[in-house]
Specification:
The chain is α/β, with parallel strands linked by helices. The chain contains 16 helices and 12 strands.
Amino acid sequence: MFLMRDVGDANALVPVMDVMSDERGGCWSPSALVSGLAAERFDLETAGAKHGRIPVERWENVRRPDVFVTSSSCSSAHLQVAMRAIFPDVPMIYVEDNYRQYAKLFAALRKERLRLPDFVCTIDGGSLEDLIGAYPEYDHARAFSTGQPVFARLAGESPALRQEARRALGLGDARLVVFMGGPKNGTTVPALAEALAAIGCRGPVYTVRRHPRDASSEADYAAAFDRAGLQYLQTDEHATETVAMAADLVLAKSSTEVLVAAHRMIPAAYVDDMAHAAPTDGPPPRVDAPLPPVRMGAIAHWDTVAKAAEFVRVILEPASAAEAARALSLHNRQKHFRNAYQKDAAKNIFEHIRAFVPR
């Protein structure tokens, strides 16, 4: 039984369901208990017809499964906590959707005095070591580096898709900077627009991709860039995938799209300015070290919007002095993302499930 609440959960877990369904002998019967935005995504995908699907409102129809497989994207962990409480003896496997998202789920389980997931599949080796360091109850027998299916699929992506996406947006030769929003962005976006205008970074075209749980509107973000005198491109009629492929640089507070961009060798950076954070952002995760790709220099991390704005200027404006910075940024992305991630992520996760499920 796969537990999905957010789109990120579905993106990471449906490929694992597909692998299980294709297993010879037909001894696996994956189904999904879905709620929230994941329910909408599951309906849109062919997975909705291929796999069993139970809306969370009918959770009482769930028979005792052999194992729960879950992720935890950006929203609450009510679904996972409820299933852990109702079926306390059923093993639970956690698949890391985005770096350190497990912290929120683990805290919610501990608050209810429930057992943490029995084992964890992490995005990469660096994340595995971070997990083990932060949660001593895990070790190399209970946590594994398997890869993440969303990133694995990018390995065979055709370069022609980027040109198609840019044509669809009508970009021509314009450079596109995309801010991938989260559920709560605080005042980060208008502050970033002001910082970009302050250093005269008017060459690129800017756009913001709203998260489905974001209460702000597309018009709010467009107005912020208009006030700063910067070019803004309305992209709400296009799929996020299209906009992401067309980007020349991607920024976000924590979106998985930063990692997707870096896999495509598109410059990317986290912008985490606490002066502009939403009031309800809560405490940071228990792991204090930078994320693995940040440690490798493959993705930048800026703690002020001013530093992020300067990063945009250096990476995108055609000054010869910036060539070394751009070259180093590309080198680090190639070194980390072409070596650190496993292309058979869904199969790797399935093999651990197979080994773990009681016979």
